[in-house]
Amino acid sequence: MFVLDNAVREKKIEKLLEIEKHISRSWHYRSLGGKTQFIPYHFRSSAHYTRIKHTNDVINCIPLFGSELDELELCLCRISGMLHDIGYPPFGHSGERVLNGLMSGHGGFESNAQSVRIACQYLELPSLISSLCIKYNYVIPIHPHFRNITLFKGVYESESFLLTLSKDYNLEKLKTVVNYADEISYTVSDIKDMVIERGDAILLDSYRKTHYLDVCKVITEMIDKSAAEIASTVLTQFFFDSKGLINSNAFQDFTRCAAAISKQFLIEHEYATKEDEYSRQILSCLFESLIQRRQENESVRDIVDLISSLTEQQTLTYY
């Protein structure tokens, strides 16, 4: 993908390692340790996954899917993994929906677009690095009449210039590796969290109605292992062929099935409803308070940038 001589390649790798350190030291990255991954804040214990624990799992799972990548490409994938969820607000998807509604008429709010914005505007990363965060190659439209009920995917207008750069470089192979690592990581972590919450009997009963009971059994049997170890075992036994290639259709069917079961779990145990209520009350109040006190040179987008960077504990403190 990048044709470079060895000396230039080594310098590029050194620069990328510096960028990794820069990201890891930033508040936006460290705040992920206080943000919801699956089990909501008000029900979460130290045993459950946070957004940063999931992010670290993604980084550790990248080599499973990137065995054909060279060191430079793996560095880019690790950075992409570090950044992929950096735009998630407090209270996860519930918080995302609340902020999207509050930003009606101002371009909305979407977590992936926010990740691109943070990488570009706040971490001030090179444009090529920021473009690694882009999942949807179009600009989010402003439709005030539909904004409250629709979550548009893409990038904000302020970062739209990155779309051209993303197309100029062939980054899809790297993005695919990170997406696979993300999918297997959150699938495994959701299952681990559900076992912590309700034990494996209820979970296995849910999977008994699908084609993936054996996969779920393997994960629950290895629950004390690291996510990367579990992912490696599951992929080897069920989704990699004899040549070490992934059966993408079967794998994506599994992750979609797992996501549906996870969503149903949150609904059945009323986590989702309660989290929606908490996030709506807290984030709306915080938003209105900051809007009333904003400076003349401060935009509505700046206000939401601040809110989205807070941990859940910080929002409660300010609330």
TrEMBL record:
HD domain location: 52-126
Classification via InterPro entries: HD_domain
Pfam family, one: HD
Record's protein name: HD domain-containing protein
Organism of this sequence: Photorhabdus luminescens subsp. sonorensis
Lineage: Bacteria, Pseudomonadati, Pseudomonadota, Gammaproteobacteria, Enterobacterales
